[in-house]
Design goal:
Helices cover 15% and strands 46% of the residues. The chain is α+β, with helices and mostly antiparallel strands and 84 residues long. The longest helix is centred in the middle third of the chain and has 13 residues, at 42-54.
């Protein structure tokens, strides 16, 4: 199933003192069936895609292999083409 990345952010936890901390190596990624996060330049989309690839995003045994899709006009989106 083809799913577009809507956005991502670091997961936040409360440490032993109750202070909220964000872990760089754990992220929450939101997906959508429509390309809502549109980037005006291929270079920007490639940068964001490369960041996601380095995080080795997985859902169970599935690892997302993100790619860039050119939308109508000059917009680009990040997509996982084999999302479960």
């Amino acid at each position: 199933m083809k799913m577009y990345v809507l956005g991502y952010r670091s997961k936040e936890y409360n440490d032993e003192t109750g202070k909220t901390v964000a872990l760089l190596y754990e992220v929450e990624i939101q997906y959508t069936t429509d390309p809502e996060w549109k980037m005006p330049f291929r270079e920007l989309a490639e940068l964001e895609r490369d960041n996601l690839q380095r995080m080795q995003v997985h859902i169970g045994p599935h690892y997302c292999n993100f790619s860039i899709e050119q939308l109508s006009g000059s917009d680009f989106a990040i997509v996982c083409l084999s999302h479960p």
